[in-house]
Every structure is written in C-alpha cells, then in structure tokens.
Amino acid sequence: MEHETEFNQKHRETDIISWFEGVAEDAAAVQRLTLRQILELNYGVEYLKKWLEDIKIQEILDENALESIYASLVPLSSHADLEPFTQRIADGDTTPLITQQPITNLSLSSGTTEGRQKLVPFNHHSSQTTLQIFKLAAAYRSRIYPTREGGKILEFIYSSKQCKTKGGVIAGTATTHYYASDEFKIKQQQTKSFTCSPEEVISSGDYRQSTYCHLLLGLYFSHEVEFVTSTFAYSIVQAFRSFEEMWKELCHDIREGSLSSIINITRVRKAVLGVTQPNPELASRIENVCEELERADWFSIVPRLWPNAKYIYSIMTGSMQPYLTKLRHYAGELPLVSADYGSTESWIGVNVDPKSPPEKVTFAVIPTFSYFEFIPLYRQKSNYNYQNGNVNSANDDFIEGDPVPLSQVKIGQQYEIVLTTFTGLYRYRLGDVVEVASFYKKTPKLNFIFRRKLILTVNIDKNTEKDLQLVVERASQILSKARRTELIDFTSHANVTKQPGHYVIYWEIKGETNERVLDECCREMDASFVDHGYVVSRRTKSIGPLELCIVERGTFKKILEYYIGNGAALSQFKTPRCTSNQVLLKILNACTIKRFHSTAYG
Ligand code: AMP
Question: CB 3.0–4.6 Å: which of 137, 366, 527, 556 could bond 600 by disulfide?
Fold first, then answer.
C-alpha cells in the first residue's frame, strides 16, 4: 500500500512535469494560442474595441498574423492606462470593460515597491494558475528533496482584510484571495502536505497574533514539518526575529496547553486551542535547545527545532536579497530554495532547478499563463548634456528596442516584461527588468534583475533599487565586522527640500557599534554609488554629502504596521527601499537617533 501511494505521488509529479515540458518545448506556438484564447475570450470588450475596432479576431486564422496585428494595433500600456477601468469596476460598472466575464475581485498589489497600492483584476484564472505553479514547483522540488506524504508545512502566510468596494467588488491582496479560494485547499490535498495553522490563524488580520500561532503550531508539529516557507523571505526572517523574543512564552504555552493573552481574537483562540494539548516533554526539549541556540545567536534554529525539515522555500531574489544573510544564519546547513517569479498581475516563471543558490536562480517562463512580450533594454552612456545640463530625470539609462515575442528573446539580453493576461491586461508594462539566462526546452529562463523604476534621483543621477542595495551591502560589511552587529533593514529618501539636494539613507541596526564605524559606513555608501551622474554631481557639489540616519529599534516594524493598517498583507510586504511618503518620513525622522554626513568627495 505504502509503495502504491509513493507510486501515485511520483506519477502525479511526472504528469505535471511532462505537461510543462510539453508546453515549454512548443513555447512559441503555445504563446500564440494563448494570445488567441485571451483575445477570443474577451472579444468586443471596451478596451480592445478602442484599438482593434471591428477587426474580427476569429477570422484571422494565421497565428503569426494575429500576433503581429495585435502588437501593431494595441499600444503598450501602464498601470495609469488601466486605472480608469479598474476604478469603474470598483464602482460597480459591470459592462464588459476589459474582460467579458465580470470581474468580481480586485487585488491590491503590494505597491510597497512604488509607494502606492495598485488595484489589479483577479479572477478564477488567477487562482488556477497559482495552484498550477505551486504544484509544478512542488514537483520539481520533490525530485531533489523528497518530502513525506501527509507531512506538514510551517507556512508563514497572512491574509489581509478583504473589503467590498463601493460597487460590491471584493478587494484584497492576491495572496488573500488565494488563501480564501478552493485552490488553496486543493493544493494541500494534491501535494499531500498540510499547513500547520488552520484558516483562522492565516486570516486573523493581525500579523503578530498570526505569527505567534504559526510558531506555536509549528513547534507542536515539529517532528512532522517537512519544510518551512513563506511568500517572501521577509516574513520568515520577521517570524524568527519574533521567536527570539517570544520563545519562553511559546514554551510555557506548550507545557500548559494554554494560549498567550496576546491572542485576543476569539475565533483564533478557539481554533488553536482546539489543536493543542499540554505537552511538558516537548516544552522541555524545546527549552533546552533554545537555551543553547540563544548563546549561539540563534544560528541554525530551523534544523535544530524542525529536525525533519528538508529545506526553506521562499522568494529570496530581488528586494528580498538583503534578508538572505539572516535567512542563511537561521537555516544553518539546510538548503534554501528560491521560490517562483510572479506578480499580482500574473505568474511568470517557475524555478526548475531547486538546487541552484538564490543568487543564481532562474525562472522558466510558463507559456500558458499569459502572453508575454519583452522590451529589449540597452545601456547607454549617461545622457547628461554637460553644456546645458539637460536631462530627463524620470528616465533611466536604458534605450528601448521594439518589444519581441517570447520566441525571439536572446540569451544575455535584458528586457522589461510586458503582459497580456486572462484578467484583462493588454500589453501591460510590468516594470520588472529580467535577463535571459538560458532556455528550458524552448522557453526562456529568466534572471530577475530589478524593478525598473528609478528610486534615487536628485538631478542627473539615476539609481535603482539594485544600485542602492549594492551600496548598502558594501557598507554593511564594515558594520558586520563587529560580532553580533547587523543591519536589520534600510530605506532611503532623495531630499531636495534644500539646495543642493542629497541622499538620506536610514538604517536600523541591532547590536553595539561606535560612531567611527558608522561614519565609515556613511562614507563608504557615498563613495560606492557608481552612477556617473551621481559621481559628477558629487564632485561638482550639485548633490550634497550623503546622510546616514540611524533609527531606533522597532522603527521598521512601525513602517510595516503603517502599511498593514492601509490594507497591505505581511505575505506580500516589501520594505519600500526609497520613500517620499510624508507619513513614513515623519516616522523615520522622529525615530532617528544619530546622523552622519559623508566626507567622501572632500
Ligand atoms: P506584487 O505586485 O506585490 O505581487 O509584487 C510583485 C513584484 O514582486 C514583481 O513585479 C517583482 O518585482 C517582485 N517579485 C515577485 N517574485 C519575485 C521573485 N521570485 N524574485 C524577485 N522579485 C520578485
């Protein structure tokens, strides 16, 4: 019987992998078919009518012709073009605006990368593709790291509040819609791995209470946990930082079968107490391990407390990279598996090489999920005109080529992704920059490079999130030379209220350090921005010395709470790496305890 179940599992995994291999082998044709399906399904909707007028999609039988007619008649779009439509949907307009099927759910994209939340349509296709990519990714993972059927997953996942818009449409984050959907339950049944926490914990709406319960239940089932996961790596790091402070209380609850008074939501208390029982033996074992772990700065906590966990699985790329050091510290020898690539707008690619380290991970595009186009991006030398100082600071340093379909992308080339989705987005610029690393069959494997938007710019300087990340990484190495001193989180602001403008970088640090070290960190960051516009401006003093502000402990938690209070979910939270939001700046400045001004450039 045992053998048969194992056989069935293998069979299921082989099924989904062979399905993907098939569509990847035929990626170009599958993409054209996907475009046809989307256009036929939404034939006659207001948005498309405007561009395609009376062209009858059904009558264009040649797939290549359809692809080029579409690209020549429908323009590239951005979220600003979509906004009037999502607003009408939110207000209750049920006429076919962007899809023939009425949109009943709108997703709030985290927006923390852009500082503002965006509304994006969500439908059944969104949940289905989520289920499909999760199953596919699980199948690839289990080839390398097999897990036990019926085992548990310690999942740090959180729903945000779902609310109804004026027109009765349900709004919430994409992950919230997914956790509330049948697909989430189906995934557990089909992958035969079950989340430790009941639904009440995931959807409590209070991330502290959910984190406590996730940890408590994770400990209860510690021997059954097969892997530890979250959507973005931030949530795992956040959970273990909380664990460092709450472990004694957690052990007390395990010993007594009680539940901390922090948990004050009745339905959560009921659900958790329905699962737990007093377990003094387990509590003592955990306590002993924690006493040792505390002395070792919690190194390797995950395998020590979850001895059967095979790996940690989460998005660790892009804006999550700064948390990788801490995650590795908590993981010890346990493999880190970088999770898949997607956005609220559409899933994009799956990690087919779970063994590759997060720094090198690539994502194989799934050609049935959306119709993908790629805008080639070419670096240009700084476009600063030294004679008259003329520059458009809203643009970055890329020259764009004409968008190409998936079948025409080239290895080594960087592109911005453009999506046409089953949810009513047409040639929508996602704003992410990717590089084609190689091919899986005939579908590209992408490296996530960064979000295209410039974040730090005062005049002719152009720095993206990635540029800031590199600079902070260099300086934080100076900081971490001191034992047990680490950078917890960071953000920045281009301060142009006084002339000359300058960059302000906010750091929250843990541990002891001295002013000399921080002075050096500040200087190092200023000197490490390699952008030509920045270097020239610093030399000519048209940008002032970089300012490093050290904020008190807990400041970034306040920022998280500010976002959560505005409807964001911890599952999708990304610390904004640059902000001009007045509320955030107020928090940051009020919490600043030390300021340093760079002496680089004299
Ligand atoms: P959201 O709009 O909140 O769903 O966030 C989507 C954005 O998160 C994407 O456009 C990417 O910029 C980023 N993202 C998602 N998945 C990954 C990944 N695997 N690696 C890096 N960045 C990612």
Answer: 527
Q: Note the pLDDT of residue 452.
A: 83
Q: Residue 4 above 50 pLDDT?
A: no
Strands (E), 452-584: 454-456, 463-464, 486-495, 502-510, 547-551
Residue range 80-101, pLDDT digits in tens: 899 999 999 999 999 999 999 9
448 lines ligand 1 (CB under 6 A): yes
In this structure, the residue with its CA closest to atom 2 of ligand 1 is 109
Q: State whether the beta carbon of 231 lies less than 6 angstroms from ligand 1.
A: no
Ligand 1 neighbourhood includes 328 CB (under 6 angstroms): no
Q: Which of 448, 453, 564, 575 for a ligand 1 pocket mutation test, highest count of atoms within 8 Å of Cβ?
A: 448
563 or 8: which leads in pLDDT: 563
Residues 6+ apart with CB under 8 A from 337: 141, 145, 311, 312, 313, 351, 354
Which residues, 6 or more positions from 168, have their beta carbon under 8 angstroms from its beta carbon?
92
Using CA atoms, how far apart are residues 418 and 87, in angstroms rounded to an integer?
A: 22
Task: Calculate how far, in angstroms, residue 415's C-alpha sits from the geometric centre of ligand 1.
Answer: 15
Q: Identify the residue whose tokens are 């410039």.
A: 454
What's the gap in Å between 318 CA and the centre of ligand 1? 8
Query: Quick check: 112 pLDDT over 80?
Result: no
Q: Ligand 1 test: best mutation among 361, 432, 571, most atoms within 8 Å of CB?
A: 432
For the CA atoms of 493, 468, 577, 365, the dihedral, rounded to the nearest 10 degrees, stands at: 150
Residue 437: what are its φ and ψ, rounded to 5°?
A: -90, -40
Give 89: exposed, middle or buried? Use CB within 10 Å, 0-12, 13-18, 19+.
buried
**Residue to mutate, 118, 315, 429, ligand 1, most ligand atoms under 8 Å from C-beta:** 315
Are 474 and 490 in contact by the 8 Å Cβ rule? The answer is no
- Predicted model pTM: 0.87
